[in-house]
Structure formats: C-alpha cells, structure tokens
C-alpha cells in the first residue's frame, strides 16, 4: 500500500512537471506569446530546470531542445522510480533496459503533446462559443492555428460552424491508438 502511494505521488508530480515543460516547449515552437497569465505561470514553474539545462543543451533551429530534453529526463526518471517501486530489476542487460526506458519516455512525451493539443482545441472551441474575446483565446488560437489551418482548407464550414477542430480531435485520437500500443510493447519489454 505504501509503495502505491509513493508511486502515485511520483507519477503525479512528474506528470505535472512534464506537462509544464512540454507546454513551454510548444509555446516556443508555435510562437505562442508568453505575456499572459498562462505563459507566465508556465515560465515561473519551469525556470528552475530550464535555465540550467540551457547552459548544457543549445537550441536547434528555433526549437528549445533544453526544455524538451528536461521533460524527457524527468519522464524517464519517473518511469524508473515507478518500475523500481514495483520491484523491477534491469538485470545483466542494463544498457538495453535503459534504452527501452528512454524509448518509453519518448513515446510518453509524444502522447502528452497530443493531449496538450487536444486540450487546447477543446478550450479554444469552448471560448469561441462563450467569449471569443477572452484574453486566453489568443493563446489557444496560437497553439492550434498551425494544425487547424490545413484542415480548414479541406473541411469547409457548414452553416457557419467550423468542424475542423472536431476532425483534428478525431485524427489525434487515431494517432493515440498506435502510440498506446507502442508504449505497451515497450513497457512489456521492460
């Protein structure tokens, strides 16, 4: 019972940090302005790990690799602690086990990124119905614009209702299926 409590707390804390780091990475990649309450919260909560990581890992082509690698390492450490609490032993093939753990952490980051995008789409749609001029509307629009723009060319509005967010959510759900299977296979190898 104690191990389950510790496992839950480690998973919850790591997921919180990883989601914030991924949000910061996506904000920079998608050119989402940080001068808003959401951006300021994300920056304030992640500076402690991003600034030291940036001293070691340079950015590449406008991508903040230090933030992404920090999220990957946090997720990998959380997976290691979770498996260790369950009695996992890497055995003599420690290199292969750590490579599998790193691959599983990578798949988790891709899944979490899909969840962040789905959350942004849902919030943007709700804000467009309730209050399209809310200050957060610009943040979520900037997060989803790059993904919705190509779909809006293919899926025209029907009676002034934009169905492209629904199509994108369906496509993201389809993407989550192979990611879940890949994560299960990698987890089974550990």
Describe what you observe in this structure.
Helix content is 80%, strand content 0%. By secondary structure, it is mostly helical. The mean pLDDT is 93. The longest helix has 37 residues, at 94-130. The chain has helices at 2-29, 37-56, 65-85, 94-130, 135-154, 164-189. It has one domain (2-189). It is globular, with a radius of gyration of 19 Å.
- Main structural class: mainly alpha
The overall strand count is: 0
Order of helices and strands: HHHHHH
- Low-pLDDT windows of residues: none
Number of helices: 6
Number of domains: 1
Strand content: under 5%
Helix content: over 70%
Average pLDDT figure: 93
Computed over alpha carbons, the radius of gyration is 19 Å
Shape call: globular
For the terminal residues, how far apart are their CA atoms? 23 Å
| Main sheet characteristics | none
Give a quick summary of the entry:
This protein is mostly helical and 190 residues long. Helix content is 80%, strand content 0%. The chain has one domain.
Quick tags:
6 helices, globular, mainly alpha, 190 residues
Ordered list of secondary-structure elements with their pairings:
Blueprint: H1 2-29, H2 37-56, H3 65-85, H4 94-130, H5 135-154, H6 164-189
